[in-house]
Design a protein that fits this description.
Radius of gyration: 15 Å
Helix content: 10-25%
Number of helices: 3
Low-confidence stretches: 1-16
InterPro entries: CBS_dom, CBS_dom_sf, Diverse_CBS-Domain
Keywords: CBS domain
Protein name: CBS domain-containing protein
Number of strands: 7
CATH architecture: Roll
CATH superfamily: CBS-domain
Largest sheet: 4 strands, antiparallel
Pfam family, one: CBS
């Protein structure tokens, strides 16, 4: 697995060491915790993205949800149209701070089998998303 870059850069411009800020994508669409799974999938399709940053009523990042997770929930036997993003247990955390090194983030993502990781500031505002390619 390697880190996915937000923009193409010449190899000489890529630092070999750095923080997640050097590699993260823009935060992208941010949605509220009370959004339903179906609506979240529609937002994802419209935005042509594989993940959404999930925020609480104060606009602070509470986690990230992927298309794979939403599809799994929707296709599950216990699915109802009343399930909200806050009801999905693995939406909450973990997060990376802007000072987290890329190597630390990549190790944590591999260990937890995460495809994407929100990057938040000290107040909980989403700054971006770090994603791994397979």
């Amino acid at each position: 697995m390697t880190l996915v870059h937000a923009q193409s850069r010449p190899a000489s411009a890529q630092p070999t060491h750095g923080t997640v800020v050097d590699t993260m994508d823009a935060a992208g669409p941010q949605v509220w915790e009370d959004m339903t799974v179906e609506v979240a999938l529609s937002v994802m399709a419209a935005a042509r993205t594989g993940h959404l940053v999930v925020c609480d009523e104060d606009g602070l990042c509470t986690g990230l949800v992927t298309r794979t997770r939403l599809t799994t929930v929707r296709d599950g036997s216990g699915y109802t149209d009343l399930i909200r993003l806050r009801d999905i247990a693995d939406v909450i955390g973990p997060f990376a701070s802007p000072s987290t090194t890329r190597a630390e983030a990549e190790r944590a993502m591999r260990r937890r089998r995460l495809g994407a990781l929100p990057v938040v500031d000290e107040h909980g505002n989403a700054l971006g998303v770090l994603a791994l390619s397979r």
